[in-house]
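Database export, one record per block. Field names are fixed; values are copied verbatim from the stored entry.
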Amino acid sequence: MKEAGDPRATKEERFRSLYDAQYASISSYVRRRVTGWDGDVPDIVAEVFAVTWRRFDDVPAPPEGRLWLYGVARRVVGRHQRASTRRRRLHARLVAEPLESPGQVSLLNSGQSRVQLAINSLGARDQEVLRLVLWEELSHAEAARVLGCSVNAVGLRLKRAKNRVRAELLIASGPPRPIHLIQDHAF
C-alpha cells in the first residue's frame, strides 16, 4: 500500500492510511469527552471519519491532518452533547407535566393521537421542518442549512405547517387541548 503522502496513492489508500494511523487517537479523544454516554463513542468516531471522507480534499498533509481530525472530532462531540442536552430537557418537560386524573390521561392520549394524525397529514417537507424546529430545537438558520433552503423558506414552511396542524385539530373536534403544545414546541 502506498503511503498517505505519496502522490500516486488513490484517495481511498490515503484515507485508509490516515484512518489506520489516527483511529485510536480520535477514539480516545472522543471517549474522554463523552463520559456518561460511552455507547455513543463508536457512532461519534464513525461520524468524524465520515466527515473526513466527505471533506478529504481539505485534510492537510501529515502531521497536520491529525490536528484537523481533532477539530472535526471536537465539533462532532459538541453536536452530540447539544443533542443529548435537548433530549434531557424535553424528557424533563414531559415528565414535569402533571396528569390530574385518569380521564385526563385518556384525553391526553387521544389528543396526542389527533396531533400525530394532523402531523402525518402534512407533506414530508412540512413534517421535517416541524420536527427540526420544534423537536430538535434548531433555529430557523440551522434548519435552513439542514434542509438546503433559505431561512425565509423555513419560516414560511413552519408557519404553513403549524396552520395546517391547527386546522386539522379544529376540524377533528373543535379547539383541542393540545394546541398549546404546538405553540410551546413540545409535541
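Remark 1: The helical segments are 11-33, 41-54, 64-96, 102-120, 124-135, 140-147, 151-173, 179-183.
Remark 2: The chain is about 75% helix and 0% strand.
End of record.
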